């Protein structure tokens, strides 16, 4: 599912790189193992790889696109200095190696890297990218989460040096995974909405917005991870990204072999599993609940938020919202490369207790009236619960939440959001209280851009209007801590959010991309250099 606007319902912070699997990283990288090819005879070169996406990206700009569909499309044509594998390790890509120093990192770039227009991509081009993102006036996708005003870059020959004024324990992750734009695109960013200008193995050939986007394989590509080149066996000649809004239709197309890959979340998975289709998956915070804490909303009161979640049967609702595949949340960070996830979480979730929930509402001044409904000062306790209309499990899970809160005396109004409604409610009208609203970041720094800092009316991403001093203090300390201590601090900060009920991680599941006639890696989105067509 994807959204348009400044952020998305699964508020599109699927940063392919805001982190590491553990609390530190290797200090340097060497050249990757050559090959990246499959066993002889299993892969067939050529043909068209067809992938379904559930919504149109709106535009293709890698500098400003935030929706899930937009970020997925960026990955087909743009590359980063390092490749983040599905298990969160870093391997050389545009850079052959790197070395971390005191408040700086030095990359050595591949020789002979070119853009899709044939012009060279140099260390100076990479430095221009870093400096562009570091300018707050540009308000790019990466500014504030991976790149800050105190970051700068310079080039000498094929060496890129990035420095930061303050210590950054994730300097490799934050700078190495930025998807790089070539010189022409940086000089004229407006054209990036409808064309591509990157170093990728594939370049945009044509598009029909709302329908299809096609990418052609380049013939001069030699710098892919694990030695992938244009001649690697099994690569398709072209990619077709097709907008298929109905999940059952996508499942049918997979089973017929008309498409090669699609995300399927709902009941159609049973058909695909029965047909023994392969799949790759990423963790999905499908049941994550956020809260509107603006002063005029009932959920601004921590006692109300705590009461609402204490009443919920996490297992029952988790089974419904995950379609029977619920996993306990282990972190607010769910995307590769899973920064500071290991060893967590440090939070404790409340046990289900309807009586305690009622007592909490009593303390908050919301008492049962004659009609069995909670009231305060003659006003009923009404909660607007929003969820994603395109996610099949959200509606029945929301109805179960409504039934539970009815027992508590709460009037719950359910609201199914489409793409436009998400952007409008979260960032413009603020007309919501809680619901299945998820962020899906790759690291805790990105989490902090949503739970701390400026609110949307002041140009920020804190659309929940959270004001949690304990969290902010821990996040500030963690942001400049050493690699050895930063993850413990970030996990403490997460706990400060959960235990104040600024967020309720009800249940995760696996978001699975089903495959037909193809093999590939999906660190977060499909990695085009890993696509191998099967004969």
TrEMBL record:
<dbReference type="InterPro" id="IPR039424">
    <property type="entry name" value="SBP_5"/>
</dbReference>
<dbReference type="GO" id="GO:0043190">
    <property type="term" value="C:ATP-binding cassette (ABC) transporter complex"/>
</dbReference>
<dbReference type="InterPro" id="IPR030678">
    <property type="entry name" value="Peptide/Ni-bd"/>
</dbReference>
<keyword id="KW-0813">Transport</keyword>
<feature type="signal peptide">
    <location>
        <begin position="1"/>
        <end position="22"/>
    </location>
</feature>
<comment type="similarity">
    <text>Belongs to the bacterial solute-binding protein 5 family.</text>
</comment>
<dbReference type="GO" id="GO:1904680">
    <property type="term" value="F:peptide transmembrane transporter activity"/>
</dbReference>
<dbReference type="GO" id="GO:0042597">
    <property type="term" value="C:periplasmic space"/>
</dbReference>
<protein>
    <submittedName>
        <fullName>Peptide/nickel transport system substrate-binding protein</fullName>
    </submittedName>
</protein>
<dbReference type="GO" id="GO:0015833">
    <property type="term" value="P:peptide transport"/>
</dbReference>
<feature type="domain" description="Solute-binding protein family 5">
    <location>
        <begin position="89"/>
        <end position="444"/>
    </location>
</feature>
<dbReference type="Pfam" id="PF00496">
    <property type="entry name" value="SBP_bac_5"/>
</dbReference>
<keyword id="KW-0732">Signal</keyword>
<dbReference type="InterPro" id="IPR000914">
    <property type="entry name" value="SBP_5_dom"/>
</dbReference>
